[in-house]
Design goal:
By secondary structure, the protein is mostly helical. The chain folds into two domains: 2-79, no CATH class; 96-160, no CATH class. It has four helices and six strands. Strand 1 (2-3) and strand 2 (10-11) form a beta hairpin. The longest helix has 60 residues, at 20-79. The chain is extended.
């Protein structure tokens, strides 16, 4: 038994100071890099050969996929309306403080006390904002203390918090 250099656990030695699972993982990564090195040149040539036709087909395929996802989403919402309502009700019970803070911001926007976040710029990257972020928490004294953020920055901020 040795301590694996990668995962730092005491395990049976495989090779190069690594346990069997870490060694297998590194081997897979290495094989993927080898494949990319071997095929990158031919892939670039293929894309160049196909040129604008290739890009057009890729764009059409992406648009079809986007429409399929939207259609699936619409059907799911239509077929599971009660489940979605129940989930929202349960969420409001689970997170009452968040719900009250979001409702307060929404009410303030409706009354005209705050501008819609869609009319503002993101406070971090200056892109068009999509949401308000409760950057100091959802407590009663901070429920209207919000900053406008774009979707990307809001996601990053929530992952950090």
């Amino acid at each position: 038994m040795v301590i694996c250099k990668r995962c730092k656990r005491e395990r049976k030695h495989q090779a190069k100071g690594l346990c069997a699972s870490c060694y297998a993982r590194l081997k897979q990564i290495g094989q993927g890099e080898d494949w990319l090195r071997r095929h990158a040149k031919s892939e670039r040539k293929r894309r160049k050969r196909l040129g604008p036709e290739y890009r057009r087909r890729e764009q059409e395929r992406n648009e079809r996929r986007k429409e399929q996802r939207a259609q699936y989403h619409r059907e799911y919402q239509k077929n599971n309306r009660e489940h979605i309502k129940q989930y929202a009700k349960d969420y409001r019970k689970r997170e009452p403080q968040k719900s009250r803070a979001r409702d307060a911001v929404h009410d303030e926007i409706k009354r005209g006390g705050m501008p819609s976040p869609l009319t503002l710029k993101c406070s971090k990257c200056n892109e068009p904002a999509t949401d308000y972020h409760h950057h100091r928490g959802y407590e009663e004294e901070f429920k209207l203390d919000v900053i406008p953020l774009c979707k990307r920055c809001h996601g990053k901020t929530n992952r950090i918090d």
